[in-house]
Amino acid sequence: MRTAAWMVVLLAANSGTCAEPPFSARYEKLAPPAAIAEPIAKLLAPDALVVSNKDGAIMRVWFRSEIPVKANDEQVKNGLTYREIPEGTIVGAIEFPETFTDFRRQKIAKGAYTLRFAVQPDIGDHTDTAPHPDFCLMSHAAKDQSAEPIAKKDLIDLSSEVNDGKHPAVLLLFPYFAKEAGPKVLDKENGVWVVAVRRAVAANSGKATLGFAITVAGMWKQ
Question: pTM higher than 0.85 for the full model?
Answer without folding.
Answer: yes
